[in-house]
Amino acid sequence: MDISTSLPELLDPSLWVYKSEGNANIVLSYAGSDPKYAGIVLRVRKTQNERGIVSEDGDIFSLEHEHDFQRHIISKLINSCYISQMQLIRVTPTFLIALSNSLSTVRPPSRQHKDLDTSQPWAALMSDHTIVPELQINDRAHAESNPETHGLESSESLPKVIAVEIKPKWGFLPVSPVINPAHSVKYTTCRYCMHQHWKGRKHEHHIQSSFCPLDLYSKDPQRVRTSLKSLLRSPQNNLKLFVDGMPIMLGQGQSIDKSFSVLESFFRRIVGESEAPNVAGVDHLVDLLTTIIVSDSLLQMLKYHQQNLDQYDIEGIFPWYDKLELDTKLHDPSIAEWNEIVQTYLRRISSPDAEMPRDWAECSLTEQLHYIYEFVLSATLKDCSVIITLWPEAEEDSYGRIRCDPGEGEGTIQLPSSTRLLRYKIRIVDIDPKRLGKIPSYFALDQNIVRHFRTLNVHKDCSLQSFTFP
């Protein structure tokens, strides 16, 4: 494990500014002047309930386990070129308490019922994929050497980096023969599209999204473009937009051009469209993202392993899980055990009869447990996020090539209306392990979603092309 046991120069709360947070972690951006830490974020664990106590049986694994899971397990399924590296550093209660105090006025009120877990011995350093460190360093040097122009709008002050974070969700329709015949709608309508209707039933003000993940994964440029425009219209929590590292607030269900004037500024830098309407910037972004998604292999890797790790659907997995001894239900695999599970899986999918899953009724107890673990691994890949970062390529690009094969996680791309090239990189994040004990809740949600959808007079074949926006 690559762990820096001590980086005391980073244990100063004034070096970190609030960026975002989720249920388990707070993410902070480095705001210091040391160039070797430019473009770094610090991810710090939160308490896991309102009482400020981390439950031992909670959903969250230790950072050490998460680090090893990404490095040694996920990297066997997804080219390591796409995986953002994590470095653990020692932190102290004194630092975490001071950090928590400094964040009290900037955190959203809806998140403040969980504080930083000041008992944690580690925090994680990771790359901030919403910026390009070299550009940030160059900007700082330019401002210091030209103080008289600092703050004046020029080509230097226009946005330099656009980053889009997408949760692609499930990329397949199940083929499991053990799905309840009454739930045969699963074979034609994808989980995400059905889930939208369930959310609408539960939440009065829910705006239903027309996004279909199967469009995004399709490799058909028209379908991919449709999926991206759907996400931009109703992003929910499945799309986030960043400009030079700062999040851009997106509306839900409103006209696209009302939220994206910043994109016009970015593409003005590229193509010189000083009078272009805001929506032109959206069109440029969608065109670029479509080209990258269609040509890159990351989403296809995700789709392949999501589906092959989930051969029997939750309707086949839950009955097996339900029969396990309690100790087994509570046992999450160690990294060594995960390694063996993945090796067994890789041998299976490389065999000549990989297309033919074992008869569900004939699986031994050992095989049943193995397929339960495979399903849990699939859940990680269904819940990940993908970040695509775009920035103009300079005549002498100081960023340097990312050490990957061409077409694997990075490259250059050109807009039809410009001779300028843009650089891009694509990374996968949020690839944390899932608990075996979540299977009952997965099953309950699945049944609620499907049963509700069956009550609606809705017929949608997600394997076909979705409605296309103009």
How far is the first residue's CA from the last residue's CA? Answer: 50 Å
The biggest beta sheet is recorded as: 6 strands, mixed
Q: What low-confidence regions span 5 or more consecutive residues with pLDDT below 50?
A: 51-57, 397-406
Inertia-based shape: globular
Q: Give the number of domains.
A: 2
- Rg measurement, Å: 23 Å
Helix content: 25-40%
Structural class, from helix and strand content?
Answer: alpha+beta
- Mean pLDDT across all amino acids: 85
- The share of residues in extended strands comes to 5-15%
In N-to-C order, the SSE pattern is EEEEHEHEHEHHHEEHHHHHHHEEEH
What is the count of helical runs? 14
Number of strands: 12
Biggest sheet strand order reads 1-5-6-4-3-2
Structure, explained:
By secondary structure, the protein is of the alpha+beta class. The protein folds into two domains: 3-128, Inositol-pentakisphosphate 2-kinase, N-lobe (Phosphorylase Kinase, domain 1, 2-Layer Sandwich); 130-470, no CATH class. Helices cover 36% and strands 14% of the residues. It is built from 14 helices and twelve strands. It has helices spanning 63-73, 93-103, 133-145, 191-202, 213-216, 221-233, 261-271, 278-295, 298-308, 313-322, 326-329, 335-349, 365-382, 439-454, and strands at residues 3-4, 16-21, 25-30, 40-45, 86-90, 122-127, 162-166, 239-243, 246-248, 385-392, 410-414, 421-429. The strands form two sheets. It has a six-stranded mixed β-sheet, covered by helices on one side. It has a six-stranded antiparallel β-sheet with strand order 9-8-7-10-12-11, covered by helices on one side. β8 and β9 (246-248) form a beta hairpin. α6 packs across α8, α7 (261-271) crosses α8 and α10 (313-322) crosses α14 (439-454). The longest helix has 18 residues, at 278-295. Mean pLDDT is 85; it is low at 51-57 and 397-406.
